[in-house]
Here is the input.
Amino acid sequence: MLENTESTKRQYALQQRAVALGWPIERIHTIDNDLGRSGASSRNRDGFQHLVSEVAMGHAGIVLGLEVSRLARNNADWHRLLELAAMSQTLICDEDGVYDPAHFNDRLLLGLKGTMSEAELHILKARLQGGIRNKASRGELELALPVGLVYTPSGAVVLDPDAQIRSALQFVFDTYRQSGSACAVVRRFEREGVRFPRRLQRGLGKGDVLWGSIDHRRVVEILHNPRYAGAFVLGASTARDENLRPHLLQVPREQWHTLICNAHPGYIDWDEFERNQLTLRTTPRPRRYRPWQPAARRRWPASGAHHLRTLRCAHEHAIQPYRHNYGALLPVPGGRRATRGQSMSEPTRGQPRRCDRCAAAGQGRTGRLGARPAGPGQDRRAHWAGR
Here is the structure.
C-alpha cells in the first residue's frame, strides 16, 4: 500500500463516478479506515462495520468500489451485506456495472463474485505458505529471534555482541544444569540480585533492551526454546481461534515442519537441550499461588479424619487442617475462624468455646469439646462440613 499507490488513487477517484451517476458531492462519504487490512474477517475492521450499519439503517443509496467483492473476502460477511442492501434498496457498483441486490440475477452474480474472491484469498495464502516453507526447509527464513541472538547484516544468526546479555542467559543454563529446577533458577536470580534482559519486539522503542526480574514462566520458555540450542525450527506452534480468541498451541515434535540442528551458534548443545526437556517433563509443576485463599489445606485419609463434637449439645464441628498445624483450631483476630460455615466462636481469655447453634437456641454455653475419628465413609463429609 505504501509503494503501490495507483490502486489507492483509483479508489478515491470513484467519488467522481458517483457524481456522474447523479449524487451531489456533499452527500458522498469516503470510507478509508480499512486501507491495508485484509477482508478475510470483519473483526477489527471499523470501516466495513460502519458501512454495514449505514446500509442497514437505509442511509446509503449506493456502494461503490473497484471490486466490491473485495469489501469482504468472507461469504458470511458478504452475503449479509447483500441481504441488508436488498432490504434497504441500496445499489452496488463496481467497474463492471451497477447491480441491484433486490433482483435475483444481480444478487446471483454478486454472490458468485464473492465466492471467487474468497477462493482467491485461499489461493494467495497457499502460494505464500509454499514459499515460506520452501525457504524454511533450507534454514534461510528469517524469524523473530529471542533475546541473546541477533542477525548479522548478511542474515546469519550469531550470539548477541552484548556481553551482559550473554552472561545473563548463560547464568540461566548454568544454574539449571546444577539444580535441575526452574524455581531454583528464579530464587538464585533474586538472591544474587541478577537482572534479566527483555527485548521489545513491537511498538515504540522496538529493538530496545529492558532489564528486570525473571519469573518461572520466563525460565521455562527459555529452556523450551530450541533456538538457544542452535537449532532452526518451523512449525513448533500453531495459532487457532477458540471462542473468538486466537490461542497459541504447541505441536508435538514429530509434527514440526522443519528442524535443523546446529544451524547457528547457541548457548547449549542439542544433547543438553534434550536432557532439559526430559527434566522438565518429569519435574512436577509448582503449586499455583492463590493469595485469596488461606494456608494450603490437605484432605485427611479416612483413618485420620476427625471432627469435634460438643459433649453437652452433640453438635458436630469440622476441623479445618492447615499446612503446619493439622487438626488445630487456629485463633483468628475478630472472634471467628476464617473459614466459611464454621459454627464455633473463638473464646475470650478464661472462657470456654461456645457453640453458636446452642446460643441461638437459648441453651447457653457448652462445656468441654471432644474429638473422635470418623468412619471410612465419613472422612470427606467430616472434612468439608465446615466449608
Summary: The first strand starts at residue 62 and ends at 64. Residues 290 and 306 are 26 Å apart (CA to CA). The mean pLDDT is 76.
